[in-house]
């Protein structure tokens, strides 16, 4: 990771009337952007490896096939941004709004998301080995086929998300989180600890989809209550 002193800092005033591709070509070192509005801009296929973005706007921006390995994103607003086929190996997103963003076929190995809003985000067919989420909202997101094997899943809201074919074996849900009404067809939960996660809306007839998981007595009582039974 580059030292902050090595970065060339760019703000909104400097970006006015500036061609980003030319700027990248003229600066061999990593760039740092602060408070820049990239909303709805075509940033596809640009080389922004190791760049740092702080409080920048990317609403509906097109970053298709952009090179973003090692990039840092702090407090950015990127709702509906397109990261399709982008390379984001070791990228770090912190406190970002990424609602309804698109990540299909992107490379996200070892990427991390902390305190981010990812409602409706689509990660279908992404390469995500070692990806991590911490304290994130992933409601209605598409995460089909993603592996969380042996992961610590801290405060993750997967309500109504598509988790089909995901691997949750030996994963542990910590500090709450939710699997309420999530689609878990063909997901694997062997030895997954779900005791701190919300399973609201889960019916006993659907419980077989969580085969092998560890749940609490309160969660078991909730399932039986759906059949009109009471656990004393």
From TrEMBL:
<dbReference type="InterPro" id="IPR001646">
    <property type="entry name" value="5peptide_repeat"/>
</dbReference>
<dbReference type="Pfam" id="PF00805">
    <property type="entry name" value="Pentapeptide"/>
</dbReference>
<protein>
    <submittedName>
        <fullName>Uncharacterized protein YjbI, contains pentapeptide repeats</fullName>
    </submittedName>
</protein>
<dbReference type="Pfam" id="PF13599">
    <property type="entry name" value="Pentapeptide_4"/>
</dbReference>
<dbReference type="InterPro" id="IPR051082">
    <property type="entry name" value="Pentapeptide-BTB/POZ_domain"/>
</dbReference>
């Amino acid at each position: 990771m580059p030292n902050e002193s090595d970065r060339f800092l760019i703000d909104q005033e400097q970006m006015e009337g500036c061609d980003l591709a030319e700027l990248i070509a003229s600066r061999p070192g990593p760039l740092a952007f602060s408070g820049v509005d990239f909303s709805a801009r075509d940033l596809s296929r640009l080389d922004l490896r190791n760049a740092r973005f702080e409080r920048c706007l990317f609403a509906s921006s097109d970053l298709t096939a952009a090179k973003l390995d090692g990039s840092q994103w702090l407090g950015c607003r990127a709702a509906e941004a397109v990261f399709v086929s982008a390379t984001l190996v070791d990228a770090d997103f912190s406190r970002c709004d990424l609602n309804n963003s698109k990540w299909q076929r992107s490379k996200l190995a070892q990427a991390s998301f902390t305190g981010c809003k990812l409602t409706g985000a689509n990660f279908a067919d992404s390469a995500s080995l070692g990806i991590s989420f911490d304290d994130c909202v992933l409601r209605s997101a598409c995460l089909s086929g993603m592996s969380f094997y042996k992961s610590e899943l801290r405060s993750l809201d997967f309500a109504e998300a598509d988790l089909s074919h995901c691997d949750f074996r030996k994963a542990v849900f910590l500090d709450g989180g939710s699997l309420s009404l999530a689609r878990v067809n063909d997901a694997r939960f062997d030895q997954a600890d779900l005791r701190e996660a919300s399973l609201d809306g889960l019916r006993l007839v659907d419980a077989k989809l969580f085969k092998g998981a560890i749940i609490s007595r309160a969660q078991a009582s909730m399932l039986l209550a759906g059949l009109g039974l009471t656990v004393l």
